[in-house]
């Protein structure tokens, strides 16, 4: 159930459309009919995206890397804004060719903060949007609010970051871990309280650091 809720949360925030074909208590003819309908749906969606100049063919080697976003000059919430590793997401913000990054956040260097049009202290945040360890985090249905609840009072803190670039921990259809860009967030002081920090989304698109092309 928790995995299903997380899936719905991410779908709401990124605009994914999920289609399921039931295989229980049905006939083969019915399944074939639903498969045919799904194929038509996919073809129609592809035609629409091609007409709008939005279609991107599948390329496994670059699908989850930073390079496509660096080439575009920006990162935007949607089905293509996902990364396999922390390092891939951080390379959009000047991380370079360093090894894998493990912690739940990373400070964006001041020079790069200015280059991408932000100001103050900025982090890239990799939250788990569910109860895990000493935190219980959740995403609002519209994707505009993240609520972070501390389950250990000794972990309470006062927010000092001006902006958080959020890369949420999620999983793909094969249960592989991904980090999805959900937007740029900042603390909502009016909604926050002791032990509960609420972050509101202020942008679904952000410039990336292109000097590394």
Describe this structure as you would to a colleague.
The protein is of the alpha+beta class and about 210 residues long. It has one domain (about 1-213). It is built from 6 helices and 11 strands. The protein has helices at about 1-15, 30-50, 60-65, 65-70, 85-90, 110-115; strands at about 75, 80-85, 105, 120-125, 130, 135-140, 145-150, 165-170, 175-185, 195-205, 205. Strands 2, 3, 4, 5, 6, 7, 8, 9 and 10 form a 9-stranded mixed sheet that branches. A two-stranded antiparallel ribbon has the order 1-11. The chain is globular, with a radius of gyration of 19 Å. The model has no long low-confidence stretch (mean pLDDT about 90). This is PvuRts1 I-like SET and RING associated domain-containing protein. InterPro entries: PvuRts1I-like_SRA.
Describe the structure concisely:
The protein is globular, with a radius of gyration of 19 Å.
Descriptors:
213 residues, alpha+beta, nine-stranded mixed beta sheet, two-stranded antiparallel sheet, 6 helices, 26% strand
**Major sheet: size, sense and barrel closure?**
9 strands, mixed
- Total beta strand runs: 11
Mean pLDDT: 88
**What kind of oligomer do you see?**
single chain
Shape: globular
Structural class: alpha+beta
Kindly provide the radius of gyration, computed on alpha-carbon positions and rounded to a whole number of angstroms.
19 Å
Q: What percentage of the residues does DSSP assign to strands (E)?
A: 25-35%
For the record, the count of structural domains works out to: 1
Distance between the termini: 42 Å
- Helix count equals 6
Uncertain runs are none
SSE string, helix = H, strand = E? Answer: HHHHEEHEHEEEEEEEE
Share of residues in helices? 25-40%
Domain PvuRts1 I-like SET and RING associated: 82-208
Protein name: PvuRts1 I-like SET and RING associated domain-containing protein
Organism: Proteus faecis
